[in-house]
Design goal:
Length: 465
Amino acid sequence: KLKKFDDDFLWGASISAFQAEGASTKDGKGLSIQDVKKISEKYSDFSVAADFYNNYKEDIALLKEMGLSSFRFSISWTRIIPDGDGEINKKGIIFYHNLIDELKKNGIEPIVTIYHFDLPFSLQQKGGWSNRDMIVKAFLKYSKVLFNEYAKKVKYWLTINEQNVMIMIGSKMKFLNGGDKKFNQNELYNQSHNMFIAQALVMEEMHNNFPNCLIAPALNIVSIYPNSNKPQDYLAAMNASVMRNWYYLDAIVRGEYNPIMYKYLEDNNFLPDFRKGDYEILKKAKPDFIAFNYYTSATVKSEINNFIEVEELIDQQRLFDVPGMFSYCENPNLEKTEYGWDIDSTGFRVTMREMYERYRLPLMITENGLGHSEQLNENNTVDDDYRIQYYEKHLNELRKCISEGIKIISYNAWTAIDIVSSHQGFSKRYGFIYVDRTEKDLKEMKRYPKKSFYWYKEYIKKIKY
Ligand code: BGP
C-alpha cells in the first residue's frame, strides 16, 4: 500500500543560470568560465541560452499553469559580483529580487543554488578553486551578499551543484570548474577540500544568522552495482560508491573524511593540504537536508578496462576506471536514453534508501529527467511520451520511498523549460516547455508546452488528493 504525499510536498522543476538566462554580458554581468570557454562548432554557446533573463515572467506564468509549487534555479555569481570578489552589481541584485518576487506572487517556492558550474572567470585566473585563501573568502563574501539580500524571501538554499561531478571528471573534461582547463588529481582533491571548507563556512554563516532558512549541498548521487556476483566486483562497487558518493557526503554531513577514501588519497599522494582547524570547521557545519541530482545508475567491475578515452565521448554521468578501485562497465539490463544514459528508476529508490540509511536527513531531489533531441510537430507541441514514461517510473519509486518512511521534501524535475545542455548544446532538450530555437538560429524563442507539461500538471493535481 502506497502512502500519499504530504500536503506541503514541493512539486517543482529546475534550471541553472548559465544554461537558461542568456544576457551573458547584459546589465553589468561579468564573465564566468562558461562564457569564455571554447565550444565545439556543433553546439550553441551560453550567450543567449533560453533568454530566461528577459522572459522569466512569461515562463513563471507557465510554471504556475503547470501547478508547480517549487522552482529551483541558480544565481549567477558574476551577475551579483562581476569580477567574483569585488564590487556588487546593483542590477544583478535587482534581477533576482524580481525573479523571486514573481515566483512568490505565483505561489511558487524558490529553491536557490548559490553556485552551479559558473565560476567567475577572473577568479579562475587567480587560481580558481585551487587558490584556497582567495576562493574561500570570495565564496563566503558572495554567499553573504545573497543571504543578506534574499534570505527573508528564500527558505531553501543549496551551496554547490555537483561538487562530485566537477571533481571526478575535472581531469577528463574541460567544462566544469576550470572552463578550458583540465586538472591533475592532486589539484582536484585540493579543490575538493577547498570546496568542503568554503561550503561548511557558508552553512555555518546561514545557521548563525538566518535561522529560518535551510541549507544543503546538491551532489549527483547514484547507486552503483557490481557487474557480477563475484565478491571482487561487489568490493569494486563499494569502492566506486565511496569515491563518487560517500567521500563527499561524509565530509559535508558528518564532517569526516571517509576512511577508505583517505587511504586511497594517501596511497596515491593525493592528500589535500589540510590546515590546522579544518576538521573543526567541517564538524561544526551540518546541512539541514540532502539535495541530490539523479539521472542514472552506474555499474562497475574489478578487472581493468583497456579502453582509450575520447573526450567527445566522455560524459558526466559515466564513471571512469580508477585502477585498484573499480572499472566502469555497461549494464545490459537497462534501457538507454537517446544520449546513452541508462534509465534506472529502481536505482533511484536504491539511491534514496542508501542515503537515508546512512545520514537520516530529509532528502530533496534537485534534478531528475531525460534529455532528447526534439522538434515541434504540426500541432505546435512535442509528443514526449518517453519523458512521461521516465517520470512516471521515477515518481512511482519516489512514492515507494515515502511509503517506507523516507523523509522527502521536494521533487524538482530537470528541466522546467528547454535550456542549453551543460556540454551538448541546445538540441539535447529536457524541458516540459519547448523553446523554439535551434543550435544557432535563435528565432523568436517562443514557448510551447510539450505533452509532458500537461501530464505533469495532471499528476501533481491528482497525487495531492
Ligand atoms: C547535471 C547538471 C546540469 C545538467 C544535467 C544534464 O550534471 O547539474 O547542469 O546539465 O546534468 O546534463 P546535460 O545537460 O549535459 O545533458
